[in-house]
Amino acid sequence: MKKVRFFQSIHFKFVLIYILLILIATQIIGAYFVQKQEENNITNFRNSINERVDVLAYSVEKEMAEKRSEGDPTLEEEIAKLLNDFKSEDISEISVVDKNHQVLAVSNYDAKSTVGKKSITDPVNKALSGGTYNNMMVNKKGERMRVVAVPVNSSEGTIGAIYLEASMESLYEQMKQVNAIFAKGTLLSLLLTAILGILLARTITRPMSDMRRQALEMAKGNFSRKVKVYGYDEIGQLAITFNNLTRKLQEAQATTEGERRKLASVLTNMTDGVIATDRKGRVILINEPAGQMLDVSRETVLSESILRLLNIEKEYTFDTLLEEQNSLILEFDKYDEPYILRATVSPIQKETGFINGIIVVLHDITEQEKIDRERREFVANVSHELRTPLTTMRSYLEALAEGAWQDKEIAPRFLDVTQTETERMIRLVNDLLQLSRMDSRDYHLTKSQVDFIDFYNHIIDRFDMSKSQNIEFVRKLPEGPISIQFDQDKITQVLDNIISNAIKYSPEGGKVTFSVQPQEFFILVSVKDEGMGIPREKVKKIFERFYRVDKARTRQLGGTGLGLAIAREMIEAHKGEIWAESKEGKGTTIHFTLPLQVEQDEDEWI
Ligand code: ATP
Ligand code: MG
């Protein structure tokens, strides 16, 4: 989170508001006080001057009215004395004028020369005409002065005037000092306010930054911190509530985490694949089995469309997928083998009914489908294999019944055919029985310790003697005996089928090679022919039940397609392996292995 800048901080705002408040208050009080004070001072000053001038006017009138005899001081001298007594610091100049505008005396020494001269200034004129002049003016030096002129009245009317100039500078100087005191007081109070503001802001911001730090820690998953409670005011209560909230959150988080773990372990340990999407159909969760089933890496498919992931973009939209009631069957190819999944779709609904996404559960039904298909194919094959000889027999028997039995030439041939077909059916049924016993493990291997080379030679000899075609047998067998444990009947059956196949599919004059190669743990038995071979893609399939490369031809040769299937079961029962190698037109080799040593504790019953 970003750090709070100083100018945005509560600290700053608090201090600023405090300072402004105090500033406004002091300014208002100060302005009001100073103004009142100034008014008062000026009034007082004016009153005191007026009173003093009145007293002076009275004294001057007395002097002027007095009769003087020879030898007495002159009127001018008397008045000059009066003025001298009257002089004070704030009064800068006083002059007395008689009714003829003639200056009788001045207080100021510098203005002595004006004595005896006429003064016809406005204030003097006004005073001599009986009025009073009282005004403020600024003199040449820039000083503020109060100018007062009053008449000197006697019973005969105005007999003179007094002119007075008083400096107001000392009064203003006083006001200036008061202002300075105010300014200093304001500054001091602002400083104190700022300090108080900082302290007060701290009591609020400290728990708040504590809570902020804790919220940040909580976001990181650390619930161990606690906010310090500084007091039981509103902020203290908030801190307590915050601590409670933290505890509750911690509990809720632990519960959620537990649930999440449970869900995760259920999802990973289940065999079915599970995919969850958001409400737009984008993958938000996919478990390991689903990733494996769809052969995708879980990280890369997150937020991919479910339709694309399941490859059903052409058939469905997200809405039609939601409406789909049945589960979908998805067919894929995995390592060139069909891979079938059943997908069940269910919506994730909120209480309001709003669909938040879907859950798709994938179930691998390849094996089940394969078994079902094999079962169907098997039933079809068996019925087909039985119907062919039966229909043949029926037509021959019908012909016989219709009179062919009397024909000495045809009748034995027809009976011969029905007998061959019956034998074929018996062989087929026997083969099927044997396979069914092997499927249900209802058989017993009667193993005996026998020299395999000797045993193999005997079988080859039998075929050598009875073969009707001109086929060369080549034996590549080791000299010495190789004694192993096996069920002679079963392995005879296996070899019979392999060798008869080799002969069956070999051309006239072909070569069949028999070999045995002892290895460390097993012997490798191979029968190689130079016959027609098997197309590459079909080589693996010849071990399947009823599988024949060329159905029409093999049926002619009398095969049912069960021989190699039985051989495989038997070799596997001996813990060996069987496989084929073939090149079309060049020939086929069938290999199988038999273990050299049988484990001691192995059960004879399989
Ligand atoms: P059965 O053995 O039951 O009489 P079959 O010989 O047709 O009938 P399998 O032995 O199981 O059945 O063989 C399956 C198929 O494999 C045969 O039909 C044939 O097409 C093919 N096959 C087996 N061996 C050879 C071989 N040596 N050369 C060419 N094709 C072969
Ligand atoms: Mg065969």
From TrEMBL:
All copies of domain Histidine kinase, residue ranges: 381-598
Membrane-spanning ranges: 12-34, 181-204
Subcellular localization: Cell membrane
Membrane topology classification: Multi-pass membrane protein
The EC number(s) this enzyme carries: 2.7.13.3
Keywords: ATP-binding, Cell membrane, Kinase, Membrane, Nucleotide-binding, Phosphoprotein, Transferase, Transmembrane, Transmembrane helix, Two-component regulatory system
Record bears the keyword Ribonucleoprotein: no
MF (Gene Ontology): kinase activity
SUPFAM superfamilies noted in UniProt: ATPase domain of HSP90 chaperone/DNA topoisomerase II/histidine kinase (SSF55874), HAMP domain-like (SSF158472), Homodimeric domain of signal transducing histidine kinase (SSF47384), PYP-like sensor domain (PAS domain) (SSF55785), Sensory domain-like (SSF103190)
Domain HAMP: 202-254
Keyword Transmembrane attributed: yes
Superkingdom assignment: Bacteria
Matches recorded under SMART domains: HAMP, HATPase_c, HisKA, PAS
InterPro entries assigned: BphY/WalK/GraS-like (IPR050351), Cache_WalK (IPR057640), HAMP_dom (IPR003660), HATPase_C_sf (IPR036890), HATPase_dom (IPR003594), His_kinase_dom (IPR005467), HisK_dim/P_dom (IPR003661), HisK_dim/P_sf (IPR036097)
UniProt domain PAC: residue ranges: 323-377
All residue ranges annotated as the PAS domain in the record: 259-307
Catalytic activities: ATP + protein L-histidine = ADP + protein N-phospho-L-histidine
NCBIfam families named among the record's database cross-references: HK_WalK, sensory_box
Name of the protein: histidine kinase
Organism the protein comes from: Priestia endophytica DSM 13796
